[in-house]
Amino acid sequence: MKKRHRALIGFFLLVIAAIEIRNLYDSLRGSSSSNGTEEKTKDDLEALEQRDQHRVQPKPLLNEEDQNKQSNNKEARSNPEKTNLQLKRKTVLLWNWEWLPDIGEPLDTVLERSNCPHHHLCKLTKDKRLVNISDALIFHRSLGPNPPLAFRRPEQRWIWAEGEPPCFGPMPDTGEPYNWTLTYRLESDLYGPYSQIYRREKPLQKDYMSIVKAKTGLVAWMVSHCPTPSRRMDYVKELQKYIDIDIYGRCGPGKVKCLKEPGKIMGYEEQCLRKLENYKFYLSFENSLAVDYVTEKFFKTVNIDVVAVVRSGANMTRLGFHKDWYINTADFSSPKELADYLKKLDANDDLYVKYLEWKNYYYSAMSTTLCRLCERLLYHDDPPKTYTKDDIRRFFYTGNCFKPNDIVR
Ligand SMILES: *[C@@H]1O[C@H](CO)[C@@H](O)[C@H](O)[C@H]1NC(C)=O
Ligand SMILES: *[C@@H]1O[C@H](CO)[C@@H](O)[C@H](O)[C@H]1NC(C)=O
Ligand SMILES: *[C@@H]1O[C@H](CO)[C@@H](O)[C@H](O)[C@H]1NC(C)=O
Ligand SMILES: *[C@@H]1O[C@H](CO)[C@@H](O)[C@H](O)[C@H]1NC(C)=O
């Protein structure tokens, strides 16, 4: 379980598509000879704003105070000389937070590689000796055994980070106090979804109709954890009464080996992902039904030619996902009704292809969470904030998990 948690937290800023990220790397390699840092600031801000326009998922919800800060920040941006004078390189210390264990992305270059315009002004590190000069410390789930309490400075932001939903058991001893939260919950101080969806600057020109016609499989599912709080296995068993499902992974009948592997894209063997493209539908069923909790199970389907059938506790619309990007079990009164709909799409290529065509215009990739953290440390003068254990309990551990209501028994 521990290991799995660690692996999952790594997905926070995970690269979803090798191809897109490769492109990104390549374009960065061309422009990364970043020189005098401060001079680049204005361009960088414009670059970030441009990139933000392409981000379709919402920014974290802001309260009024934050909004005022933002408009102040806009003034600062319109006066780059003034901003430059105030700029000081920021250090973010990942105190006990694992970094991308699944793909082994080196921490010190990840900002640059993910096109973060602030990379030259922001250092990510795990070196605990830098605690005294760190502007922010990130703690995963708890302060851990030897938190640097004695060295805590009031200007430092201590950040509570969590990527797993609170549905597996009682609240852990998080320790306290913290200053910010970083989770997949939209209302976190730093919204940290598993990945994000971006609009392509240059649309692809894929002919999805011919892709559809070449497909030979109907529904696929890849799963390695069988009993889960969401009881997805029970849902699938019911669904299987009405439609054929090929199951890969540890829970399938053939127990096909297609498990997460370190160093591989999204933690999955690419060959395995490509197998999915033979299918029309892929079941992106979360292990827990929790508010805002959508994981790589959905994001990994965005860049491959398969339609995700989502089962989660998230309001997908609220998270910025359009209705024709996925099929949601929540829109059907029973697994049978869902099966009927999938069969209807299977019989009607015109209807089915609408769920693929958007992929010409969008892709998923690493979330910008750490980049936005740097941006806030650099350019926003956020007022001090404190979260006690009770605040975290109210925010994260209370009322955010749902029992499945779509399974009989
Ligand atoms: C970087 O700056 C140095 C001096 O600070 C200068 O000699 C060099 O030409 C610059 N390189 C680029 C690529 O601008
Ligand atoms: C941090 O600074 C304090 C003095 O303010 C010093 O005692 C301590 O050793 C420093 N810690 C580290 C890890 O450098
Ligand atoms: C989901 O979110 C959208 C947009 O925020 C909202 O209009 C809708 O009522 C929500 N749906 C549910 C079932 O809460
Ligand atoms: C962080 O929290 C501590 C403890 O409540 C507080 O003293 C400090 O002012 C806070 N700092 C910031 C920057 O929010």
TrEMBL record:
Signal peptide start-end: 1-18
Topology term for the membrane: Single-pass type II membrane protein
Biased composition (Basic and acidic residues): 66-80
GO CC list: Golgi cisterna membrane; Golgi membrane
Keywords: Glycoprotein, Glycosyltransferase, Golgi apparatus, Membrane, Signal, Signal-anchor, Transferase, Transmembrane, Transmembrane helix
Residues covered by the Fucosyltransferase C-terminal domain: 213-388
Annotated region described as Disordered, given as residue ranges: 51-83
InterPro entries, A to Z: Glyco_tran_10_C (IPR055270), Glyco_tran_10_N (IPR031481), Glyco_trans_10 (IPR001503), GT10-like_C_sf (IPR038577)
EC number: 2.4.1.-
Pathway assigned in UniProt: Protein modification; protein glycosylation
Fucosyltransferase N-terminal domain mapped to chain residues: 88-194
UniProt-listed Pfam families: Glyco_tran_10_N, Glyco_transf_10
Stored SUPFAM superfamilies: UDP-Glycosyltransferase/glycogen phosphorylase (SSF53756)
GO molecular function, one term: fucosyltransferase activity
Cell compartments where the protein resides: Golgi apparatus membrane; Golgi apparatus, Golgi stack membrane
The keyword Chaperone appears for this protein: no
Entry's family note: Belongs to the glycosyltransferase 10 family.
Name of protein: Fucosyltransferase
Organism: Lingula anatina
Source organism phylogeny: Eukaryota, Metazoa, Spiralia, Lophotrochozoa, Brachiopoda
Gene: LOC106180367
